[in-house]
Amino acid sequence: MTTSRLEGRIAIVTGAGCVGTGWGNGRAVAVQLAREGARVLATDIDTGSLEETVAMAGAAGGNIEAFFCDVTDEASIRTALSHCETVLGAPDILVNNVGGSAPGGAAELSREAWDRQILFNLTSVFLTCKAVLPGMQARQRGAIVNLASTSGLRYTGAAQAGYAAAKAAVIQFSKVTAVQYAPYGIRVNTVVPGQLHTPMVENRLAGQRAGGNVEALLESRVKRIPLGFMGDGRDTAQAVAYLASDDARFVTGTEIVLDGGMTARCD
């Protein structure tokens, strides 16, 4: 359902492209916020993919401004923020969606791969919040939604120590930031997706975990989910839109877990 509950809001969504055709988390979030009335700065390092995001938004694409941003680079983040303020206005909403896993446990993961995982999944969240928070504090309002992963809550079937550690840290970073900035009218929450069926499954994870066998990977993922099916990026987008809106005005420092009951299982 499309509403106008974000009418007049300005949002920055990082990682709003997609690794393939379809509804990745960032793309779905950017489009959902735009459809609900927000003017969205959709950022990614893949500008071609951003163009597809705008096209898939249909009539709401007019509310989306695509812009290159490398969220591991402070200068790039400052440029994107400046562009947002100049073209759209000061952001009321920040959604940190950038992330990605690398296989390997503590002994197998190289130091370089570990550092990249922390930079990509955690430091990027810190850097974007660091850039946006002073302005939100001055305006006495704001909503930040960070995306983590159920890998940050429990072992989910694949050894990915760097990714799991970074995503667990995102959850705690969000809690600390939420409490610190609550007196300034800023809310900070986390969406924690589980076994979703996004384009990343076919384009990246199948090669990492199932020798390229997409069907085998999908079957193994569904078996972990009590509801018996996988959600997708649109489920993530609905949760983010709620947390970004005034419907969640009394919600901060917490998480919405989107996993079909997977982490509630004791086996």
UniProtKB/TrEMBL annotation:
First and last residue of the signal peptide: none
SUPFAM superfamilies to which the protein is assigned, alphabetical: NAD(P)-binding Rossmann-fold domains
Transmembrane segments: none
InterPro entries: NAD(P)-bd_dom_sf (IPR036291), SDR (IPR050259), SDR_fam (IPR002347)
Xref: Pfam families: adh_short_C2 (PF13561)
Membership in a protein family: Belongs to the short-chain dehydrogenases/reductases (SDR) family.
Name by which UniProt lists this protein: 3-oxoacyl-(Acyl-carrier protein) reductase
